[in-house]
Amino acid sequence: MTRLSLHLPLSALLPPKDDPHSVPLNPLPSPAIIIGPLPPTSPLHLSLQYLALSDIPDFHRPSRHRERVLILTGSKDTFRHALEEEDEDWFRDHGADYDVLYRLRRVDMRFCPSPQQLMMMLVLLSVGEGTEPHKVSQQPGMIILWDIAGMFMEEIGGDENEPQTCHPEHEQRFRSEACISDYLSLLSAARTTISQMSSPDISSIRLIILEPHLSATSAMPIFPVRPTDENDPMPRATRERRVMVMEGLTKLFGRQAIGQVNSLSSESDLRDGSSYSLNLDMYPGEIFQMRRRRCGRAEWAGATVVGPDEGVDGDLGGWRWGFV
User: Can you name the residues that pair with 242 across neighbouring β-strands?
Assistant: First the structure.
C-alpha cells in the first residue's frame, strides 16, 4: 500500500466517533486545502488517523520504517493557547491511551513565529541526523500546514462589555503589510519541498493545508497598504487592489484540491454550539454537516476561575466537534 493509496477519510479531520458509519468516508485528496473553521486539534487527528492506517501491515510490499508526520505552524504559544481554549474532551479521555501516545511520538512539530522563519524552514528542510530544527529523522509520509494565513493576521479587538462566550473564535484580519504574494510563496515553497524530499522509490509525500481563519471571501492586497503619500508614483486604486485568496489557491493546486467549511449558525447560537457545512469541489453536490458543541469538563479538572465581576452560567467546559 502506497502513501497516496491510503484511504484517509474526511472524518479524520475531527475526533473519532463510536459509529464509523455516521461519518463521511470519502477520501481526502492530496494535496488538500481546507479553508474555514476547524478545531486546533484537526492536524493531530489527521496525524493519528494517517499513522493508524499506515501501521496496517501490507504483506505484498517489503516492510519499511514506521511512518512519521510533520506539522508546520506558527508560534508555539499560539498553538498551545488554541488547544487550551478548545479543551477537547476526546484528548482528555484518550490522550494517555498507549496507541495514541505511541503515534503522537511519531508526529514532529515545527513552530515558526514568522513567515520568514517558515520560509527558511521549508527551504532547508531535509532528512538527516542532528538537532537543527530543519532536520527530520526520516522522510515524513504526510506534511500538514496549520493556520499559515494566521501568521499574516492580527486579532481585532472586541467590545470589552460583550460576554466572552458570544464569540468562540476571535476575529482576525490581515495586517496592513501582508501581501498575497508572500502567502502564496509559502505554499508554493511547501509544494516544492515535498517534490524535492520525495524519494523515487517511495510514493509522494501527502500535503494537507488547513486554514481555519480563511473564507471564500478572504482577500489580500497585491502591494503593501501604506498611508496616502502624494509622492507615491503608484495610483491609489492599484495599490489598494485586492485579490481573492481562493483564486491564488486554485491556481496553485486546482479546484479539486480545495474544500470550504461554512458556518450555518446565527449569532444567537454561538454560546452553546454552532453548525457548519463542508463542501469539496471533488465531491459536487455532497454536503458534509458538522457540529461544534459544548462538552463538560473532566472529573479531575479544576473548577473554572471566574472573576467577581464576570457572570458565567455554570461550568461551560470545552468544545467537541463531530460530523452529523
Answer: 221
CATH of the domain at 22: 3.40.50
Among the listed residues 144, 139, 136, the one whose alpha carbon sits nearest the alpha carbon of residue 45: 144
Length, in residues, of the chain: 324
**Residue-wise pLDDT tens digits, 127-183:** 998 889 999 999 999 999 999 999 999 988 655 455 444 444 567 899 988 999 999
Reference 210, options 63, 50, 94, 36; nearest CA is 36
Whether 5 is covered by a domain: the verdict is no
**C-beta separation of 172 from 33 below 8 A:** no
| CA geometry: angle 201, 202, 206, nearest 5 deg | 155
Relative orientation angle of helices 115-124 and 180-197, to the nearest 10 degrees: 20
**Region of residue 254 (left: phi > 0; alpha: psi -120 to 50; beta: else):** left
126-127/153-155 β-pairing: unpaired
Q: How many domains does the chain have?
A: 1
* 38: its cell numbers: 476547524
Say if 2 falls within a structural domain: no
Amino acid identity, residue 112?
A: C
pLDDT digits 0-9 by tens, 51-86: 999 998 876 665 556 899 999 999 999 999 999 999
Q: What is the DSSP string of 123-160?
A: HH-EE-SSS-TTEESS--SEEEEESSGGGGEEEPP--T
Residue 292 lies in a domain: yes
Q: Is residue 230 part of a domain?
A: no
